[in-house]
Specification:
two-stranded parallel ribbon; 4 strands; 91 residues; two-stranded antiparallel sheet; 2 helices
Length: 91
């Protein structure tokens, strides 16, 4: 097991080693919390997008509900998820 995860190491570590390890842990926790907030913001954006039928879809971002089929030829693969799809876009 890694020495910095050992409870004995925490007790016997010098002040500098302990605070460096504690600082890294705090930075990782803050980065995780920031990532969670970004994910939550995107989730809220998607949840608040109104659903539409394709014939009455407004301009801009809309969530479409219904069934679709792939066009003939090579399948379209989403570059981020590597899943077959009918359309993709990202920036």
């Amino acid at each position: 097991m890694l020495s910095f995860l050992n409870a004995h190491w925490i007790v016997t570590a010098g002040p500098g080693d302990f605070w460096i390890t504690a600082g890294i842990a705090v930075l990782l926790a803050l980065a995780g919390f920031a990532g969670f907030l970004l994910f939550l913001r995107r989730l809220r954006f998607v949840e608040e997008t109104p659903q539409s039928l394709i014939r009455s879809a407004a301009q801009g971002y809309v969530e479409l509900q219904g069934a679709c089929r792939l066009m003939p030829g090579a399948p379209i693969i989403a570059p981020l998820t590597r899943q077959p799809c009918v359309w993709w876009s990202y920036s």
